[in-house]
Amino acid sequence: MRPAQRIGIVGGTFNPFHNGHLAAPLALFETMEWSKLIYVPAYRQPFKTGERTASMFDRVAMTLLATESEERAEISYVELERGGISYSVDTLEHFRSRDSETVFDLVIGDDNLEQLLEWRSLDRIFEIANFVVLSRSGGETIPVSLKGRVSRSVAVGSGAIVLADNPTVPISSTSIRQRVQNGVSIEGLVDPRVATYIEKYGLYRAEEE
Asked: What is the set of domains in the chain, with CATH numbers?
């Protein structure tokens, strides 16, 4: 029996939201049989607690600007409303408590795989959702203990690590911040409305990392 629907969940700091955040998941939209993508801006990511970020307001504004014309995408503010460190298991529990039938796919980049065993309540995450791993670096390092969960096709139910065949988008938020700080154009890397917002409010110009 096919599930009522399947939803992709894309979390991140989005500091700033760039074209890769939208293009890579949307390239998989039909293949993964998603009914929608939910973007979840983090209040504070557990592996980026020392990173200097734009304000919560600015990050949400840029995410809204970048996705407002895409009817397949919506934004959830659950992590911002919860505050503190944003753990994926808490976010998935939130969605599962409101919907017991939908299949949830947590979309991550392949650069996150090495740290996967450090994620809070990983076993519980696998009970609720699959991981859909986007190719970013052109390769992946999967912990040995998780290789039995790997799939190359759409998973039924939960508990799989699906390695997606998506076009690699060579863009990172870090490189965009560095370009802004150095006065280099970010045209083509972010939505024009995001670029205008960054320029208007002087984001990242004085960033020191």
From this structure: 6-200 (3.40.50.620)
